[in-house]
Design goal:
By secondary structure, this protein is α/β, with parallel strands linked by helices. It has one domain: 3-Layer(aba) Sandwich (Rossmann fold), CATH 3.40.50. It contains 7 helices and 7 strands. It has a 7-stranded parallel β-sheet with strand order 3-2-1-4-5-6-7, with helices on both faces. Helix 1 packs across helix 7 and helix 4 packs parallel to helix 5. The structure holds beta-D-glucopyranose (BGC). The site of beta-D-glucopyranose has 9 residues, from loops. The site of beta-D-glucopyranose (BGC) has 9 residues, from loops.
Length: 267
Amino acid sequence: MSGRLDGHVVLVTGASSGIGLGVAEAMADAGAAVAINYRSHREPADDLVARITGKGGRAVAIAADVSDEADVARLFDETVSAFGRIDILVANSGIQKDAAIADMTLADWNAVIDVNLTGQFLCSREALRRFRSQPADTRPARSAGVIISMSSVHEIIPWAGHVNYATAKGGIRMMVRSLAQEVAGDGIRVNAIAPGAIRTPINQDAWDTPEALEKLLRLIPYGRIGEPEDVARAAVWLASDEADYITGTTLFVDGGMALYPGFRDNG
Ligand code: BGC
């Protein structure tokens, strides 16, 4: 295989399903060696490794809970021991524990903040430490390292019934900008991708019946649900030298969902 990410090593968290799986496969297709992190679903992670290695690529599956500090350190250790270095982190792991606010338990709140926000902090911090320790003359890219944080349109769109999730994504928006500002001088780029409604298990209720899909499409000006590949292609580009001058921003991959579609007919 050869491509834009030849010689790069990428770690994708939450890569056993959905967007993470699509991103990991696209990174491998672009030539990167890929560490596929999963928390509990080992089989799809192993299947993805087999698919990538079957195509002549390099991949390993590594179990770790991104909200656990020691697990995160081990996840990076295992990535570096498999491939010798790390160049790109895609901090993708995310969960939903939806409830109206009066019924939202502290456990629901904490679980979402722990994985979706603290998990991104822990992984980003570890990636920065590793990027800084790698000699400049060994880099496969112009940058010293790239972090892509998987956000959501809900980093700007408020979401009733999902206050924990929207709060975590809003936090990611400022984390990405603050981090990017802090580490740009080291040659490290930090950006977010904000997917809209992508056809994955996390939002299956929103697309798996014709009625649900019809309702969802009213929120998407471009008129179709997104596929993991839509996000994956954007991630490969953002990780590559083609996006070398881009840091501290969010790329919306949402078919226009964040464009206030309620105003389409004159408000
Ligand atoms: C959520 C999905 C939702 C989409 C658009 C995503 O961040 O995980 O459940 O369909 O945003 O609302």
